[in-house]
Amino acid sequence: MDNLAKLQQYLQLTDNLVELADKNELAECARLLAMDIAHYKMKYGELPLEEPFAITYAEELNDQQRELVISSM
After folding, report:
1. Residues 69, 55: contact at Cβ < 8 Å?
2. Among the four residues 3, 4, 7, 50, which has the most C-beta atoms within 10 Å?
3. What is the pTM of this model?
4. 72: enclosing H helix or E strand
5. Where are the domains of the chain?
6. What pLDDT does residue 30 have?
7. How many other C-beta atoms can be found within 10 angstroms of the C-beta atom of residue 13?
8. Alpha-carbon gap, residue 3 to 73, rounded angstroms
9. Is the pLDDT of residue 1 over 60?
10. pLDDT value of residue 34
């Protein structure tokens, strides 16, 4: 499976999970994400979030950005 097809599958799966999740499950997800970011900061320093935020709202991704999104899924 090529990366674009894999990315599309992951994005669809994410959308499906968000639709099925209740408020408490989404809150738990946010807490886990916050904990991961805090752990990274303590271990490696500040996590630069400008690029991930830009990727989130991009209409098209380059190969490196696609790999980052696939890895994050």
Report:
1. yes
2. 7
3. 0.62
4. helix 63-72
5. 3-72
6. 93
7. 11
8. 12
9. no
10. 92
Confirm if 33 and 20 have CB atoms less than 8 A apart. no
Stated length of the chain: 73
- The residue type of 19 is E
Q: 18 near 26, Cβ under 8 Å? A: yes
Name the pLDDT band for 28 (thresholds 50, 70, 90).
Answer: very high
Question: Is-contact 14 73, C-beta < 8 A?
Answer: yes
Quick one: CA dihedral 69, 33, 44, 52, positive or negative?
positive
Determine the Cα–Cα distance for residues 63 and 18; give it in Å rounded to an integer: 26
- DSSP state string for the chain: --HHHHHHHHHHHHHHHHHH--HHHHHHHHHHHHHHHHHHHHHHSPPP-HHHHHHHT-SS--HHHHHHHHHH-
